[in-house]
Amino acid sequence: MPIYPSTRQLEILCTLAHTRSFSRSAEIMNLSQSALSQAVQQAETLLGVQLFHRTKRMVAPTKPAMHFLAQAERFLSNLDGAIAELRNDSDPAQGRVEVACLASISVKLLPGVVRAFRAAHPNAVVRVRDDDPDGIVRRVRTGMVDLAISLMFEPDTGVLFRPLIEDDMRVICRRGHPLSRREHIAWEDLAEFDLVAMARGTGIRALIDRHLPGLDLFKDATYEVARVPSVLDVVEQSDCVSVIPALMLAAPDVDRRFHHRPLIDPVITRPIGLITAVDAVLSATAQAFSDVLIRRLRTVDAKKFPHIRFSASLAESS
Fold first, then answer.
1. How far apart are CA 100 and CA 146, in angstroms?
2. Which pairing describes strands 159-174 and 308-310: parallel, antiparallel, or unpaired?
3. Is the pLDDT of residue 318 over 70?
4. Whole-model pTM?
5. Is the pLDDT of residue 313 over 80?
6. How far apart are CA 26 and CA 43, in angstroms?
7. Per-residue pLDDT tens for 210-222?
8. What's the Rg (C-alpha) of the chain?
């Protein structure tokens, strides 16, 4: 097996190519001139190529060496970057974590988690991206993100799913709406009212369509919107009704602004969990973020989330 110059020798060669001076290079590399000269000679012997022209007045890289030394500089730079990234990944205070999640999670649960994580690790970088459930699983499986908080429609052997919370679909209407006088509301009851539907492709719409494939409740919906806040705005200012997950009703003024009840026949439950790649080892930063998430959910004030249920898995060690 061939023996190549060490990274230290490459640093010496690149320094000499820049300074074109043995004395200046020795000073920069904190070596004696004789030690530096010996290191250059050893590298040339290992490579079997003369790298420098030497005269009493000057030293300069040979023409073949110039391309090699430029590549050596890029190699050293890439190596420095890789080592820095490795050290950052081993230190949660300096690293980076990429998180994918449902829009409802990014609005209702993650802001507090991100604040707590940044308070503990102010120099770490956090990036949160919302997506639909299938897109989230794809991001985890392909390594585009470190972890995700989402539901899963189908089992996937490429990822691990740890249950965290679950909520049910609830019907929502403005206060004083005729539907607000009913205590028990079935999905079929909604057909007599104008509806605000979540757009096809959103996680909420996909979940409902999978559970009610023959109902096609939203085919003639008056409004079709992409985000839950838009649902709330339309419902509050119209006679329309809609269906959203219970988590999105966790706000102090919801009961004052809206009437909402669970839907029956059937009850549609949305299990949400922590998703990681099955063969991945989380970086120190990603693991620290996951730990903060679990701790926050363990200690959350249930009164702020009266219509969601917390998984028994939260009692397990993280």
1. 8
2. antiparallel
3. no
4. 0.70
5. no
6. 16
7. 999 887 889 889 9
8. 30
